[in-house]
Design goal:
By secondary structure, the chain is α+β, with helices and mostly antiparallel strands. The chain has 19 helices and 21 strands. The strands form five sheets. Strands 3, 4, 5, 6, 7 and 8 form a six-stranded antiparallel sheet that branches. The chain has a six-stranded mixed sheet with strand order 10-11-12-15-16-21, with helices on both faces. Strands 1, 13, 14, 17 and 18 form a five-stranded antiparallel sheet that branches. A hairpin with a 5-residue loop joins strand 17 and strand 18. The longest helix is centred in the N-terminal third of the chain and has 28 residues. The N terminus is likely disordered.
Length: about 550
Amino acid sequence: MKYKNGIRQVLMPTIIAVTLITGIFLGRNVLPDTSGSKRSGRLFIYPQSNKIETIINLISDDYVDTIDRNDLTEKLIPDILKHLDPHSIYIPAIDMKAATEELEGFFGGIGVQFNIQNDTVLVIRVIPGGPSEKVGLKAGDRIVSVNDSIIVGTKIDSDQVMSKLRGEFGTKVKVGIVRRSVNKILDFEITRGNIPSLSVDVSYMLTNTTGYIKISKITQNSYHEFLVAIAKLKNFGCRNLIVDLRDNSGGALDVSLQICNEFMTKGDLLVYHEGRSSPRSNTYANGLGTCQDMGLTVLIDEFSASASEIIAGAIQDNDRGVIVGRRSFGKGLVQNPYPLPDGSSLRLTIARYYTPSGRFIQKPYQSGIEDYHRDIWDRIEHGEMFEQDSISFDQSLKHLTKNGRVVYGGGGIMPDIFVPRDTSDFTNFYFKIRNLIYTFSVKYADDNRDILQKFTSAQEFDKYLETKKITDQLIKYAEYEGIVIDQNELKRSYRLINTQLKAYIARNIIDDDGFYPIIHQIDEVVKKAISVIESGDAKNILK
């Protein structure tokens, strides 16, 4: 009995102490405070697995004002990602449809191109075979209502119009149309279709032997569009090709490699990528490309990025063609999409890609996202757009192409032939009248549509508009709008104004097939590319 009493005497104080501590803990952290306020001590009863989740719980429960927990989370995610790199991004569920359509190359819509002029939605072009053409819409029609909602004279912008006209494939939309030849509003019910968002803007023959293809973005449909363009040019006797990737911000990596493959011989390395959790992966040409014997020149500029840089890098490092233009953007990071349960998505950088010579072309981003996106302006301020000598290279980032030519990594693709921005025709008067050039071109095309629709080529538009002294008409329009004409500056900028005006008018009637052949008359990069590829200089450069 003495033994048992001894144990009780030893354990009893411990039991009492534990009981008291537990009671104090429960009183402070579980039971409500007598003052009616919540205790910050609630932290200790939350699971200890995630600090961020704990903080959100605290804010949700104890913050002085009511907080929308989901809204707070949506704002928090981008803030986290901005501390990684400039291209890891979060896409909210509400924006996923537009982001997906951009990559897929299709969207649900009615199949028209439009322009907003004087608060009126003017149909510029009706896509052949599209939903609008099938019900009878025509170029020159004015859309005044959508689903009984008046949109004329409401200061509506293009994004608002598109949001009303686009929608799920197979759904219906009602539009009210004003047509010049009809004295009443015409009502149409249109069933939305899958409308292609074309990435190959135009393909045509620049000379008897040299063809041109403009690729504005890389979507899942770009490779098919590219093959169609190539077949068309070959039918016209194309032996040399200029591929224009200027202003191409990239897109689908796999599609860019399919386009590369068309030019390469079997076994040529196109690109490789690797990351901390992604082992090195090489992509090689399969030797089945249809353009292996073509002369090739690729055009790039400071807005050529990502997938377009992969194409340019593969062409340059394999000494397959000459790169002409200005230094590209410099994006060498690979993003992988991670769908989230609520329909949103995380596009996380998982690897770096390298050109065949081993170049990592990603420009530095360690100074922060704001400085990263200021890089283009810094290039302008440093004179890079006008003088190649203003560009300095880090010798530690030097690499060699297949034939031993020196190329550099660390910030974009440097062209083999540098062509500065052409500002020789720029004047203060041009900048005053620049917006009117486009406004007047839309008005002129609309007022003269019956005559202009007879023309089917850029050459016909060019010749006709010259006879009409179209720029003189623009100047009278500018005077009517209150712009003072500086004759000396007009003379200096005349070629630029006249060419842009004709190109815009042609675009308003026959789209880019009319625009590019005219605007290329003053495009120094295209002129240089033609000279290089047809003179034989390209072969000397690539030796």
